[in-house]
């Protein structure tokens, strides 16, 4: 039942956000990749699908441009000369919550996990099909489109000491403001909308990442891990997001004894 509710809400929100994205031209995409041939191909391919792409081939210049200009999304290669993609992402996340899709030629899952832990919204291993990249880009931008349509569908959610203003796209835990990426906000919204209920990984993957679940994809787990740490840092208490083995995740409600102790 919970899966069906999540799916219904996701599809309705996705229709609204897609309509908004079609009527509001998105900002340019910044591609940071030292492969000039690939960069030219992606600039052409994405351009034919309505996107404006700006390109940088070095980590330092890419980071500088990402912080100086406004972009809807950054496509960031990991294997960059000089400052690598991980360091670019670390420095970027210290000052910006712009959407970032990592492009990695490394086959090691550890590298992909590190990227997600640092704060990437998603990753795509090289070599990849341009159609897959386009699908990932559109999915990320659909999530971002919620910011443009938020005022008309504003709602306030609260559970377990966590408060969300979906109109302003703000969140707090025990009164402490949380700095969340779009993925983390949508993940927290799904959990707060169903406090105490166990949400399956399959449902959360569709709702939050806008794609089908694959058993070996650790993206959702890494986003949960980052969100869990932010909640714990804000509240200074035990974990609020519980892992339910082989099923999914649950926003834990405070026990009666914990409420009396406050």
- CATH homologous superfamily designation of the largest domain: Response regulator
DSSP E strands, number:
12
CATH A-level architecture of the largest domain: 3-Layer(aba) Sandwich
> What gap, in angstroms, lies between the N and C termini?
34 Å
Mean pLDDT over the full residue set: 83
As for the CATH topology of the largest domain, it is Rossmann fold
Query: Would you state the CATH class of the largest domain?
Result: Alpha Beta
Query: Could you say how many structural domains there are in total?
Result: 2
Largest sheet: 5 strands, parallel
The total of helices stands at 11
What spatial form do the alpha-carbon principal axes imply?
globular
Structural class category: alpha/beta
Question: What low-confidence regions span 5 or more consecutive residues with pLDDT below 50?
Answer: 14-25, 256-262
Fraction in beta strands: 15-25%
Order of helices and strands: HEHEHEHEHEHHEEEEHEHHEEH
Cα-atom Rg, whole angstroms? Answer: 19 Å
